[in-house]
Amino acid sequence: MTDGDEVPIVRGAGVSPGRAAGPTVRMATAAGEPPSRRTSLSEDEAAQAIVDAATAVAEGLSARSEEAEGTAREVLQTTAQIAKDPTLVKDAQERVRSEGVTPERAVWEAAGAVADQFESLGGYFAERARDVSDVRDRIIAHLLGAPSPGLPQREEPYILLAQDLAPVDTAQLDPQVVRALVTEQGGPTSHTAILARSLGIPAVVGVGAGIEDVATHAEVLVDGGSGKIYLEPTAQQVAAARERPRQRRFDPPGRTSDGYRVALLANVAEVGQAGPAAEAGAEGIGLFRTEFAYLGRDCEPSIDEQVEAYTGVFEAFPGRRVVIRTLDAGADKPLPFLSTGEEANPALGVRGIRTSWYDPQVLENQLTAIARAAEASSAEVWVMAPMIAQVSEAEDFVRTCAAHGLKTAGVMVEVPSAALLAGPILARAAFASIGTNDLVQYTLAADRLLGSLSMLSTPWDPAVLRLVESTCEGGRAQDRPVGVCGEAAADPVLAAVLVGLGVSSLSMTARALGDVGTLLAGSTLAQCRQAAGLALSAENAEDAREAARETLTAVDDLGL
Ligand code: PEP
Ligand code: MG
Fold first, then answer.
1. Which spans in 448-491 are helix H?
2. Taking residues 270-287, what's their average pLDDT?
3. Tens of pLDDT along 11-41?
4. Which residues surround ligand 2, an ion (CB under 5 A)?
5. Which residues touch 61 (CB under 8 Å, ≥6 apart)?
6. What is the pLDDT of residue 2?
7. Closest ligand 1 atom, CA of 441?
8. Which of 285, 414, 505 most suits a substitution to test ligand 1, by most atoms within 8 Å of the C-beta?
9. In what order do the strands lie in the sheet with 203-205?
10. Which of 401, 472, 485, 528 is catalytic?
């Protein structure tokens, strides 16, 4: 494909803004399913080869975990643990003995059985099935003497090309070395996209077969804002990409160039993220996901434990707004103490506020804890419920919060019905916060976890923008604030469109505050409104985005 001026480009979905140029390096891919052949090794030799390969993989991962920090360390440790688990090795050895197949085939089959078992358990275990496949591929690569799948071990900066990234790879991305990321699969809400944004690495996902063209070029320029990859960048473009600051600072408060105020807030999912969010200039917290306090536990955390966890975040924002979301579990995140049962369509199941219909005490306990933590802190605590679909649910939630002394109770707008009924909902609730990640999946009927539907999963879709507009209209009619806390708020150009649609606060990963704040500060409210109008009347996501980018003239100056 070529641009207007005949510059060869490949297009994908730009999911993490910024421009970077550099040599491309393709991530080694897994060898795939080994054929079912008989081994020429003796039983003992084959069994020993399996233990040796698994041990080497486990040791390699453990050694890397020691050099890593934070999440990367934890993910590497978990993966090393799976490689060390004797069940996988024993099962593979058993298959060599009983079926006489090659060690690599035996490992493939044994890992398949373990992954199936994990998947059938659901929740946390289902997530680990991906790690099992990753370990399997590494052991097989070792047995075949092939390069291990995963991030290239290089110190010189490069542009990473990959089919998609396993959690263990994403956790190890070093922004100093991986200048930009281009993936064949994945969509804007995939874990790869979310992580790239939180690390500030420009990323384009879902380029499909175009990745082959990118791979054949020695040096490319990736524009993570527009989703374009320039295959033959000019020396000038490369130099300009190098000069751009990798991360802009946010200078609060958020406002447009003509002084229209937009509160720029941060999303946090654990206590440790609150301090860095405050340091990054966040004016408050717009989404405090509380699942961390519950996940991976057999029983509900005690009220005291919850009070401690919530207090940690409230204290990082004295006198500021902290919007805490009640537990969003169930369905694909089942908890042993919530009675959600087996469901064929988990995204449409008993999740979010719906779990409280069956287990009201869990919500009661959480609200007790939130009220106690709020009382002891000077933060301005707002509470909101996930997955509200009906007016009566909003009314019940507000009443329940009031009984706990929590006066500012709002709703998340993640289901199209709530966007359409925002007027009556906001006649009851104090505010609305639009969760665009789920709103996209329910509007386009595309599971947000499915890479195969990533072309549908974009908040730029005009249908999604119309629902945002409808929510803002409901807010205006009731004089209630409407914010956005989904990933859409972290895309600077889309953030400006959301402001133009009437959103008064934007909550995002703290790293995005600099780019979003800078673009808003370089745009007038009239430009935001014009961009919003054009995007709303577009017929598809790509046209909506192009129209907005052309209208917001600061986009090019800032290289977003
Ligand atoms: C959303 O759906 O946009 C949202 C913010 O909630 P989560 O991503 O936690 O579902
Ligand atoms: Mg959601």
1. 462-478
2. 95
3. 988 888 888 999 999 998 777 899 988 989 9
4. 414, 435, 438
5. 76, 77, 79, 80, 83, 138, 168
6. 47
7. 2
8. 414
9. 9-11, 228-230, 219-223, 19-26, 158-162, 178-183, 203-205, 13-16
10. 485
* Vertex 117 angle, CA 112 and 123, to 5°: 120
Are the CB atoms for 36 and 101 separated by under 8 Å? yes
Query: Quick one: how many helices (H) and strands (E) in the chain?
Result: 23, 16
The mean pLDDT of 123-144, rounded to a whole number, is 82
Query: What's the token pair of residue 137?
Result: 């591929």
Across 426-443, average pLDDT: 97
Residue 299 bears catalytic tag: no
Q: What is the DSSP string of 227-249?
A: TEEESS--HHHHHHHHHS-SSPP
As given in the structure block, the two tokens for residue 247 are 């991360």
Q: Is the CB of 486 under 6 A from ligand 1?
A: yes
List of residues 6+ apart from 519 with CB closer than 8 A: 492, 493, 495, 496, 552, 554, 555, 558, 560
Q: State how far the Cα of 11 lies from the Cα of 3, in Å rounded to an integer.
A: 10
Ligand 1, atom 10, lies closest to the CA of 438
User: Residue 6's pLDDT is what?
Assistant: 59
**Ligand 1 centroid vs 435 CA: distance in angstroms?**
5
Structure tokens belonging to residue 472: 């803002």
Average pLDDT over residues 159-166: 87
Report the chain's C-alpha Rg in angstroms: 24
In terms of Cα–Cα distance, which of 261, 313, 267 is closest to 286? 267
Let me know: does 219 contact 237? Beta carbons within 8 Å.
no
Task: Write down the pLDDT at residue 178.
Answer: 94
pLDDT (tens digit, 9 = 90+) per residue, 465-519? 999 999 999 999 999 999 999 989 999 999 999 999 999 999 999 989 999 999 9
Position 122 scores a pLDDT of: 62
By alpha-carbon position, which residue is closest to atom 4 of ligand 1? 435
Find which of 183-187, 363-367, 451-455 is predicted with most confidence, using mean pLDDT: 363-367
Give strand pairing partners of 321.
Answer: 284, 380
Residue in 120, 150, 153 with CA at minimum distance from that of residue 137: 150
Q: Classify 146 as helix, strand or coil.
A: coil
Closest-CA residue, ligand 1 atom 9, reads 289
Q: In this structure, what are the phi and psi dihedrals at residue 289, rounded to the nearest 5 degrees? A: -80, 125
Strands (E), 139-210: 158-162, 178-183, 203-205
pTM assigned to the model: 0.71
- Amino acid at site 190: S
